[in-house]
Design a protein that fits this description.
Chain lengths: 256, 291
């Protein structure tokens, strides 16, 4: 797979989610997750929009955290890595809020059909994003420990892996916003490339560690960091399955 | 040097091979129920209903399966009650009422030549929105139908059996000589159900049977329906979508067109109607997004 098959890295203006005014995203970026219908339920629709904004904000934060962790690792910046670890609370906090809001909406609004799938999907997506945030924090922990060591062969291809995983997170959140089943499947398929890259890194680091025992310590750190990134890719695939469920009502395993 | 160990395998990781959680698993029992091939008891073939020149229901084709609960849902005025009343020929009493198309009960055309409406109503019982016991004793309410049908067995036993089947026996066994009108609303409705099943119909039609009842009585009636479907085929008209979702096996969604004639939009297993309906009109209606 060549690099040009990957979606373009998001530009700052392309980020769909930013903390916005109460009630959600600014109108020009407000995604049409809830399809236009023949009638409306204002309170209900507003509650679901709030849940959605919350989850999308989580996605945006996760993406930022992955990039920040890799940047701290490459820059040998233990302080920046510590900041990533500390910032994880924001994602955890949004996840708790999302779960509370979803439970309240289910309890009071009797959602059915697509509305119910939407809430179930967002509940699960919030859980996956929270774990992704934990993984980004774990990468940052490795970055802290790596800071005193000299770079091990430019960290092998770890920064590329990090960027690809962050791009996957961006792509899957966009697919969620647009309830785009085809896009979700495309993003899930790219996880195979992440897995392949992870295995390359693994093999290469093993060679480096065999060559020189001094490489064992930083090499192990790089192995763990790349493992966490690979796990984030798996969770992206899980979200892709959620999007397929939301769009079609069908439960499918995209890991086959 | 201590190293954080990698996490335990996650759901969906390539290693564990575990598929995604199926979130509608609670529906499994009813889904399995759907797999049983059931006989058709009532079949509507291109049925239209008219009050004079006004067509109230147009071109309805559907099948009601044996020992299942079929719910009719839809906005007011879409012809649900007209349709259900047509099934036991209650609308014969309405001047100018007529039907086109066919309505078959066990293959027999209920509007065929020579069919006795009274005989139809014996096979197809009806429970109404407002409990309507006769102004007679509890016992006489239940015994009335069998008696005029010339029941030859032990009426006391039949009354007890019917009241037990309607989950009312324990409430009224010491009040059999009291007026049926003195019971609570929920008890009165169960008395009407006992009265209906005392003549051993094949089909029980229920037109908004719980709309005048409190939540507890409503749930009792729903539990009762689940019991009764072992022996009877039930068709229920309800405005309460959660009731249709809770209590029925099959749901029929009706609405009305520009000509104000009601028609069937979608008929499907209830689970499907409430999780993944095929038609956007159904989706909007069950989601409470009314036109």
């Amino acid at each position: 797979m060549t690099d040009d098959q990957w979606p373009e890295a998001p530009r700052p203006t392309d980020v769909t989610v930013a903390p916005s005014e109460p009630g959600g995203l600014p109108p020009e970026t407000r995604p049409a997750v809830v399809p236009p219908t023949h009638g409306s339920r204002t309170t209900y629709d507003r509650e679901m929009a709030e849940v959605k904004d919350n989850v999308l904000r989580m996605g945006s934060l996760v993406e930022d955290q992955i990039r920040a962790a890799i940047a701290a690792l490459v820059a040998h910046d233990a302080e920046a890595a510590l900041q990533v670890i500390r910032d994880d609370w924001q994602i955890n906090d949004l996840q708790r809020k999302a779960t509370g809001m979803i439970a309240a909406t289910i309890a009071t609004q009797n959602p059915v059909a697509r509305d119910l799938r939407f809430l179930l999907t967002l509940d699960h997506v919030s859980y996956e994003l929270e774990r992704m945030g934990d993984h980004a924090g774990s990468v940052a922990k490795q970055a802290r420990k790596l800071a005193p060591f000299p770079p091990l062969k430019d960290y092998v291809r770890l920064p590329i892996l990090g960027e690809r995983v962050a791009t996957l997170v961006h792509g899957i959140i966009r697919a969620l916003v647009e309830v785009d089943e085809a896009a979700a499947r495309r993003v899930a398929a790219l996880d195979d490339e992440v897995d392949a890259l992870y295995h390359q890194i693994f093999d290469e680091v093993l060679v480096l560690m065999r060559d020189d025992p001094a490489n064992v310590d930083p090499g192990t750190r790089i192995l763990f960091a790349s493992h966490y990134l690979e796990r984030i890719g798996d969770r992206v695939t899980n979200i892709a399955e959620d999007i397929v469920f939301l769009a079609s009502g069908e439960v499918e395993d995209l890991n086959q | 040097m201590p190293v954080e160990s990698p996490d335990a395998p996650v759901r969906g990781s390539s290693a564990d091979g575990v598929g995604p959680a199926i979130r509608i698993a609670a529906a499994g029992e009813r889904e399995a129920d759907q797999d049983i091939a059931r006989e058709t008891v009532i079949e509507l073939q291109d049925l239209s209903c008219y009050y004079g020149s006004f067509r109230a229901v147009r071109n309805v084709s559907l099948e009601v399966k044996k020992q299942q609960i079929t719910a009719l849902i839809g906005p007011s005025g879409c012809g649900k009650s007209t349709l259900i009343r047509t099934v036991n020929r209650m609308n014969d009493l309405v001047p100018g009422y007529r039907t086109e198309g066919k309505l078959l009960l066990d293959g027999q055309d209920l509007y065929g030549r020579g069919v006795d409406p009274v005989a139809v109503r014996r096979r197809v019982g009806m429970v109404f929105q407002k409990p309507n016991p006769f102004p007679k004793t509890v016992w006489e309410n239940v015994a009335f139908g069998p008696r005029i049908n010339g029941y030859k067995g032990n009426l006391n036993e039949l009354v007890e059996h019917s009241l037990r089947r309607a989950a009312l026996w324990d409430d009224v066994k010491d009040k059999l000589k009291q007026s049926g009108m003195a019971l609570s609303g929920g008890q009165q409705q169960r008395l009407c159900i006992a009265r209906t099943i005392a003549v051993e119909p094949e089909v029980i039609l229920m037109d908004e049977p719980c709309s005048a009842l409190d939540p507890r009585s409503t749930l009792q009636i729903e539990e009762l329906m689940a019991e009764l479907k072992r022996d009877y085929t039930i068709v229920i008209v309800t405005h309460n979508m959660q009731q249709a979702a809770r209590a029925s096996d099959t749901t029929v969604f009706m609405t009305m067109g520009d000509d104000r004639a009601g028609y069937v939009v979608e008929q499907a297993p209830t689970i499907e109607i409430f999780t993944n309906p095929k038609n956007q009109l159904t989706e909007d209606y069950v989601s409470g997004r009314f036109g």
